[in-house]
Amino acid sequence: MDSNAHTLVLDVGKSNAKLVLFNAEGDVIARRVRANHSVQTPHYLALGLDALQAWVQESVPTLPEHARIGRIGITTHGAAFCAVNGSGLALPAIDYEWDGYGELRADYASRIDGFETTGTPLLPLGLNAGLQLFWLQQTQPEAWQGIEAWLPYPQYWAWWFTGVAAYEVSSLGCHTHLWQPARNRFAPWAVREGLVERFPPLRLAYEAIGPVQPALAERLGLPAGCVVYAGLHDSNACLARHLHALPGASVVSTGTWCVVMTPGVTGREQALDPAREQLFNQSIEGRPVPTARFMGGREFAHLCHGADPALATESALHEVLEAGWLVLPGHDAGPAANFGQAGEIVRGDQPMGSAPQVVPLHLRPALAAMYCAMMTTRILFDLLPLALRGNPQRSDALSVVILEGPLADNPAYAAALSALLAPLAVVRSQDEVEGTARGAWLSTRWAMPSHGRDAYASVPPPTAQVSHSLLQRFRQWSTVADEALV
């Protein structure tokens, strides 16, 4: 393979999809972005794959130097599986935000293996992909018989490009109930129920599975021999970029979801609690990673309520604290609903209701950032052993927390998190490319020498006065969180 070839990354998040074109050195040459939209089918809400495929086919030929693309890397959001056969999609892919499982949800819960086997809690909506497959098996038996292969979402796109069916562990191990993280094999219940029979061979995320199909390559203007890699789950793509540089560091990947991953912590050191939406993910190398998350991007947007996110400055954070504003976690924000959902807004001791409009427009983004920082701190502290939280060795990578994604560039969020996590060291990657795309690019050259883009910058805490006020407010917040977050 030409070492000077360009790499195209397809990065499909829940809210947006991106095409990012890299040169051999890892510089971004071009990118294309579109919003994702779900579609209503007769039976359920589905991912809008037809429109996304059309966009890819329209966009790739418009990329500069697209004829030099020699590699394609893929990363997507989790909790999405695609059923395929010789004609293409056998069924529309269920959108994980659909919740029409009815009584079959209880039947599913009675059949699956326990948390000690799958490392996965029972999650709301369709966030356990095993539930999606089980529901389709029970309610669409004729369509089920026509399925030749179940593909995790990244591998669906790899199949769409190449015609080669595969699955990969970072997607199978993403809170699906289908996988045993500690043993790197399918869960016993999935074998008993006949779900495993329709999964293709296992491949590594950083393995080239085949060239782009000739007819598709011609339509896209790609050279013959352009190879496609198996692909991986987006949070694990963010983690992948740091596993060589700071292998024990915790990673906070922000976006629609704020995902906290602690690869330096093992299950033996810290038992996970499924009631707090803690779970095991699988790294690109197939190792279990203690993880927890909440929909931070959604909560931030909700609390901004139309205010410009750029208003989330450190000075605005100071003003929020001086005025006594605080957002408490909702009392229904445990695992039965969206974990970490914002609840009542207070000013000092005065309840102000739950509508963000009660907060002055210019302060909403800083208040939203503070709430997200408090939630992030809480779930990270729940994952880390007490000894590490209280007395870390500053030279040890285990004491480092790496920020990724949009909130990493939010001054109020980053400063608040640095204050709340002290004495842990909070750093931000100096790489300007988002972690999902960089991780997918890295997956196409996993065995190659270091890419030289692993520099980090410290995130300093705010002033002593602001830090002190934040810690005081966090103690008040934590009292409510102890009840609301189970």
Describe the protein.
The chain contains 17 helices and 24 strands. The longest helix is centred in the C-terminal third of the chain and has 21 residues, at 464-484. By secondary structure, it is α+β, with helices and mostly antiparallel strands. The chain starts with 5 loop residues before the first strand and ends with a helix. The model is unreliable at 333-337 (pLDDT under 50). The strands form six sheets. Strands 1, 2, 3, 6, 12, 13 and 14 form a seven-stranded mixed β-sheet that branches. Strands 17-18-16-15-22-23-24 form a seven-stranded mixed β-sheet, sandwiched between helices. It has a three-stranded antiparallel β-sheet with strand order 8-7-9, sandwiched between helices.
Radius of gyration from CA coordinates: 22 Å
Strand content: 15-25%
Number of helices: 17
Low-pLDDT parts are: 333-337
Mean pLDDT: 92
The biggest beta sheet, please? 7 strands, mixed
Helix-strand category: alpha+beta
Shape: globular
Number of strands: 24
- Helix fraction, binned, reads 25-40%
Separation of the first and last Cα atoms: 52 Å
Short description:
With 486 residues, this protein is of the alpha+beta class. Helix content is 32%, strand content 22%. The longest helix has 21 residues, at 464-484.
Entry keywords:
alpha+beta; globular; 486 residues; single chain; 7-stranded mixed β-sheet; 24 strands
